[in-house]
Amino acid sequence: MKLKRKIPVLYFTFLTIVLVSWLLYVRHIDLFTLYAKRWPAALTMIFGSFIAGSSPEGSAAISYPIFTLILNIPPAVARNFSFAIQSIGMTSATLLILGLRIKVEWNYIKFVTLGGIFGLVFGTYEIVPLVSPIMAKLFFVSLWLSFGIALWRENRHPSRKVFDEISNFKSSDKTRLIVFGFIGGIISALFGTGINIFTYCIMTIYYGVSEKVATPSSVIIMTIETILGFFLHALIVKDFQPAAFEMWIACVPLVAFFAPLGAYVISKLPRRRIAQFLYIILFVQFFGAMWVIKPGAAKLIMCAIVLTAGIFLFTYLARAGKSNAAAAAK
């Protein structure tokens, strides 16, 4: 008996709508002038969108530092562009994940998203105006590097047990995921990404969920968050800048292909290869920020404190997760 081939109909439908709409719009503008002006953004997003689809990092983890630190694009423009472009790329990746029936953890997605919606709105109105973009970025890359180190230490043990879902899911797990989602939503309000990698930490370190399941799950979470963020800035806050719109138009056809390509590639890799790929991203992200920002002594001390505290935090979460799993198994 032949197995039915899984055809991602929703993805191809969405791709067709996006490309036809884009072609109809660009007929009325000077496309050559647009790309002559915005080619650095387009080139960045080829790599950024692939990483968005293939890892728990959104494309903003690539575009935000490059735009703000190398291309001198204002942080608010970079953030709004991130929401806009991820609404295309990550939606494409999500529809491919669903169409190919790639394994995801739905409790993780549901409750993190619930907290993330409130965190994004709260962060947009209450936190974003208070935070220095440079300090926020250094905190961001230092915390994620500490997670990468903790995950690497866990994966050094051949006996590490991983699961396809959260075992013995209880009310306390719902609360925990909602709280982490709320904090992740605040982080996304700052950068245009963050809830995915932040909650991915607790999934892999605390709950021991396989990277192969947690990664596509985090892509779906960031897709929902980014659509809400785009809607919030474009229609409610109404601070979506012309520069962000130009870069969005330049990048739409690229991310519609490369984000789902990343999701497809990662579905074919073994769990340890996915983890190794993530280590590389986090390492490059941290040292790239150090090279570009060239922080002074005070900022370096802050990075060292966050890195050290993060390693202790994630190591504690890993041990607590093992203890909970052992207690549940009795």
Q: What does it look like?
A:
With 330 residues, this protein is mainly α. It has one domain (9-21, 35-329). It has twelve helices and no strands. The protein has helices at 9-26, 31-54, 60-70, 75-99, 106-127, 133-155, 171-191, 195-206, 211-236, 242-267, 271-293, 297-329. Helix 2 (31-54) packs across helix 3 (60-70), helix 2 runs parallel beside helix 10 (242-267) and helix 4 runs parallel beside helix 10. The model has no long low-confidence stretch (mean pLDDT 85).
Overview in brief:
With 330 residues, the chain is mainly α. The protein is 80% helix and 0% strand.
- Mean pLDDT equals 85
Strand proportion = under 5%
Task: Report the principal-axis shape.
Answer: globular
Number of domains: 1
Helical content stands at over 70%
Count of alpha and pi helical runs: 12
- Number of DSSP strand runs: 0
Chart the SSEs and their pairings.
Layout (H helix, E strand, L loop, with lengths): L8 H18 L4 H24 L5 H11 L4 H25 L6 H22 L5 H23 L15 H21 L3 H12 L4 H26 L5 H26 L3 H23 L3 H33 L1
List keywords for this structure.
globular; mainly alpha; 330 residues; 80% helix; single chain
